Amino acid sequence: MATTATKARFARFKNLEFVLGAVLTGGICFLVVFSDLLFPGGADKIDLSARLIAPFTNTDHIFGTDPLGRDVLARVVSGGKISLQVGLLSVAGAVVIGVIMGLISGYYRGFWDMIVMRFADVQLALPFILLAITFIAIIGGGLTNMIILLIIAQWVQYARLVRGSVLSLRDREFIQSAKAIGVRDIHILFRHLLPNLIGPVIVLMTLNVATNILLESSLTFLGLGVDPLIPSWGGMLADGRTYLQNAWWVSVFPGLAILLTVLGLNLLGDWLRDSLDPTGRTSK
């Protein structure tokens, strides 16, 4: 059994994890939300007389400038709008579809459960990059299509998670009691079952926002994501790869933005997992 000192150290570590994750995520979100006020000149202002200024050598361009003289800091902050928008909207869509499918599949079982789960198995067996290339080749790229692609790719995770939880809860006494007194199925699903499995869903949501930011950046870097004319972290990485030897900052700073955002979200996800599921903690 863990000693009191060990438990105290674990608690301090988890608090530090939460604080660091909240500071990183909150700070980046603050910069992104108020980017128009912080950088009134915008991210697309071209100044050819200020091309490739090195970082920390000019007070007007702290992170330097790119080959067109655009401020790298302004573009990094503006690019965060696209990455966070893709991450949040795609996760929201996947949660709505996946939770509904999982609730119905786990509660009613039978033919509907078989159809949903077999479809989920087929989709999970399909590599994401193949799905992305096929989808974009047929539908096309762009911000909206990128969000739809990520919803299609990730709703299965929520459906399987919710289905498994529903299977373990559907025969519990409080569900059987609700059925016995004539509570309608829709009320059982959303008032009795859903509140008891929302914890793991929230944790998965937090981690998937970080994953989707990475996926958007990767696909945009490969030319399969959002419009190249729109500032995004993946697009900035792609634009700066030809200048890595002479102007490393064009790619390094958007890469650091991705790293810090994903790190902050993952720290919050780990903290939520331990906070919402105490039985999952391990102490030695």
UniProtKB/TrEMBL annotation:
Q: Which GO terms describe its cellular component?
A: plasma membrane
Q: Show the stretches that span the lipid bilayer.
A: 18-39, 86-108, 128-153, 193-215, 247-268
GO biological-process terms attached to the record? peptide transport; protein transport; transmembrane transport
**Localization of this protein:** Cell membrane
Keywords from the UniProt entry: Cell membrane, Membrane, Peptide transport, Protein transport, Transmembrane, Transmembrane helix, Transport
Domain ABC transmembrane type-1 as annotated: residue spans: 80-269
Membrane topology, record value:
Multi-pass membrane protein
User: Entry's InterPro entries?
Assistant: BP-dependent_transpt_permease, MetI-like, MetI-like_sf
Concerning Pfam families, the annotation shows:
BPD_transp_1
Q: Which family does it belong to?
A: Belongs to the binding-protein-dependent transport system permease family.
Name by which UniProt lists this protein: Peptide ABC transporter permease
